[in-house]
Write a structure and sequence with these properties.
With 328 residues, this protein is an alpha+beta fold. It is built from nine helices and twelve strands. The longest helix has 23 residues.
């Protein structure tokens, strides 16, 4: 799941086109896909565009363990499309067409799973995530057909591709499900490298933190950054750590919880463990680098259990990815 604005993918776009004219039945307001890959005669029934997101894609399968190793985290622009194939077309035929187009474009298939294979349960889990997304009342009102398209109980197929072009890498996930009521439904996730627009979060000063603790007993901190999927504190977090240390040094009796929060991307268990490790890393840094007694600091990981905004947009997810100081 990131995861560069100039994407030299013109050749890739041309190679992946497998349709004729856009269908009149496409969901209103849909953008033009950056990689126009739809089965001939299909129509676009739902879409989502995140300017910058962290996306976790299945990238390997542990045969002996019987599970996917979901370790490929990509940051960048994520565009998701749901296509409905013409009636009578099987999920296998549709999926193989997408895979052939991506292979012809130079894509490398890093993971594939078909119906009735050992990884079939994991494909169903992946599909469940998509149906949860499509279950949002607002989205179901705009695109009710999309939920039906991938909520079938028939065969399902998945593949993850890595496409290297012009010095950049695009990740593509393709899931096709035998439709419950109509034709086969395909969910296409495209994650293109894109630099995050920085400088949008102001440093929380010692004075602001003190005021927040007095007013609400807690303070959300957004100036602490970590490597994706890790608990390594980035160097640019030092100024924010210094401000936190000023508050603690100015109030020797103050004890705080340091609570790590994530967005809802990825599995809850993994997010819970990650948020705990990040909170522990902050405690270690404040204690080791700034001389704050560890007994005054208690790390706590809360994953995505306490959002302050909707996780349906990247702006909301950015607000949810935070650290909170909570006075004890």
């Amino acid at each position: 799941m990131s995861l560069l604005r100039a994407l030299r993918l013109a050749g890739l776009c041309a190679s992946l086109v497998i349709v004729g004219a856009a269908q009149a039945q496409d969901v209103p307001g849909a953008p033009t896909p950056p990689l126009v890959t739809r089965y001939q005669g299909s129509r676009l029934v739902a879409w989502q565009n995140d300017a910058f997101a962290s996306v976790t894609l299945p990238s390997a399968y542990e045969r002996n363990g019987g599970k996917w190793v979901k370790s490929q985290v990509v940051e960048g622009q994520r565009q998701r499309f749901v296509f409905l194939a013409p009636a009578g077309k099987t999920a296998l035929e549709v999926q193989r067409n997408y895979e052939a187009a991506l292979t012809a474009a130079g894509g490398v298939k890093v993971l594939a799973c078909a119906a009735n294979e050992h990884c079939a349960n994991d494909v169903s889990e992946l599909r469940g995530g998509y149906t949860d997304w499509l279950s949002d009342p607002a989205l179901r009102t705009k695109a009710p057909v999309a939920f039906n398209a991938i909520n079938g109980s028939g065969d399902e197929y998945h593949a993850t591709f890595k496409v290297d072009k012009g010095g950049s890498t695009t990740w593509v996930s393709v899931l096709t499900v035998e439709g419950a009521r109509e034709g086969a439904g395909t969910v296409l996730d495209i994650v293109q490298p894109k630099a995050m627009e920085g400088g949008k979060v102001a440093l929380a000063s010692a004075a602001a933190i003190t005021d927040g603790l007095k007013a609400e007993g807690k303070m959300a901190i957004y100036g602490l950054n970590f490597d994706t999927g890790k608990a390594d504190i980035r160097a640019e977090s030092r100024p924010q750590l210094a401000e936190m240390a000023k508050v603690l040094k100015s109030q020797p009796a103050l004890k705080v919880l340091i609570v790590g929060h994530t967005d809802n991307q990825g599995e809850f268990g993994a997010n819970l463990a990650l948020s705990q490790r990040r909170a522990e890393a902050l405690v270690a840094a404040l204690s080791h680098d700034y001389g704050i007694a560890a007994a005054r600091l208690r790390p706590f990981g809360d994953a995505n259990a306490a959002p302050v905004a909707s996780n349906e947009t990247e702006a909301g997810r950015a607000r949810n990815r935070r650290v909170e100081l909570v006075a004890q």
